[in-house]
């Protein structure tokens, strides 16, 4: 799916909750899940693995941001 199209569809509330990369990964998984042919859709196991991967990326980014913010505050003190 075209990246620009994804962000036209997704509500502004959702866009504020994650990075464009995270939202795009989630949207692409969702699109795979609604394919007409069952053999084109991922199994529940594949969906679980992909959702965990996306969550891990989000947490990793949040942790990095938190560490950077903490370091900056320490330098200011």
From TrEMBL:
GO molecular function annotations of the record: kinase activity
Protein name (record): Wall-associated receptor kinase-like 13
Upper taxonomic lineage: Eukaryota, Viridiplantae, Streptophyta, Embryophyta, Tracheophyta
Gene responsible for this protein: WAKL13_8
